[in-house]
Design brief:
Mean pLDDT: 98
Organism: Pacificispira spongiicola
Structural class: alpha/beta
Largest sheet: 6 strands, mixed
Shape: globular
Strand content: 15-25%
Function: May play a role in fatty acid biosynthesis and insulin sensitivity.
Radius of gyration: 19 Å
Family: Belongs to the enoyl-CoA hydratase/isomerase family.
Helix content: 40-55%
CATH architecture of the largest domain: Alpha-Beta Complex
Number of domains: 2
Protein name: Enoyl-CoA hydratase domain-containing protein 3, mitochondrial
CATH class of the largest domain: Alpha Beta
Pfam family, one: ECH_1
Distance between the termini: 41 Å
CATH topology of the largest domain: 2-enoyl-CoA Hydratase, Chain A, domain 1
Low-confidence stretches: none
Number of strands: 9
Order of helices and strands: EEHEHHEEHEEHHEHEHHHH
Number of helices: 11
């Protein structure tokens, strides 16, 4: 039996999904993207999981779309299905109730870079490389552009898109594509530590905050404040909010019910 395209393990309240096409640099075939979608749908229903970590097996995070698959299927319907499935996957990451941390080693290029930009947080080894090199092969990274242009300054995004150059993890951290660049031998520990901090919070509050962040980001300033204010009013009615405020006043750790 072939190995699953996505491996899943859980450690306490942290679930890790591993893209498992190591011989193909975890190229995002339709089958792999559909497997990721299935895992995300299952995690979205799992109230015991607070944080999701996304990583790649083998030598890198992901080299992007499976170009061999796309070349072998020249009909428009198949290619449209590929990019539609990719869009569904990226939106599923954004809409997932749990925050998602990209844990990056090796390369994250094209749609792989898009996936990193889509995740809520990202930590990379100092040896990792990022890029949107589609222009080099005559296929502009138009869908990766959507996530990249929302994660970094537009001029930085345009430079990556127009040149196709691969950038270092250090540069990716400087432009805001990732949160931090760490020594390769510290990647596991740093990712685990960040996930543990987030997992210690109320899961209901994390869900509320992630959803509100992504909804307000494209609103006008006035609309964003009005929306965020209504979210805070609703948030004040949570049982965990009462507990958190009482714990703060009483100078004790909160005991979350996740309600």
């Amino acid at each position: 039996m072939p190995e699953p395209l996505v491996l899943r393990r859980t450690d306490g309240a942290v679930a890790t999904l591993t893209l498992n096409r190591p011989k193909a640099y975890n190229a995002l075939s339709i089958a792999l993207m559909e497997a990721i979608l299935d895992e995300l749908a299952d995690l979205d229903r799992d109230r015991s999981v607070a944080v999701v970590v996304l990583e790649g097996s083998g030598r890198g995070f992901s080299g992007g779309h499976d170009l061999k698959e796309l070349q072998a299927n020249p009909d428009v319907a198949f290619r449209q299905r590929t990019f539609d499935t990719c869009t569904k996957m990226m939106l599923a990451v954004t809409r997932l109730r749990q925050p998602v941390i990209a844990k990056v080693h090796g390369i994250a290029t094209a749609a792989g870079c898009q996936l990193v930009a889509t995740c809520d947080l990202a930590i990379a080894a100092d040896t990792a490389k990022f890029g949107t090199p589609g222009v080099n092969i005559g296929l502009f990274c138009s869908t990766p552009m959507v996530a990249l242009s929302r994660a970094v300054h537009r001029k930085q995004a345009m430079e990556m898109l127009l040149t196709g150059d691969v950038v270092s993890a250090q540069h990716a951290a400087e432009i805001g594509l990732i949160n931090r660049c760490v020594a390769e031998d510290q990647l596991d520990a740093e990712t685990n530590a960040l996930a543990a901090v987030i997992a210690s919070k109320s899961r209901k509050v994390l869900k509320t905050g992630k959803e509100a962040f992504h909804r307000q980001i494209d609103m006008t300033l006035e609309d964003a404040y009005a929306y965020a204010g209504s979210v805070m009013v609703e948030n004040m009615g949570y049982a965990d909010t009462d507990e958190g405020i009482d714990a703060f006043i009483g100078k004790r750790p909160p005991l979350w019910s996740h309600e």
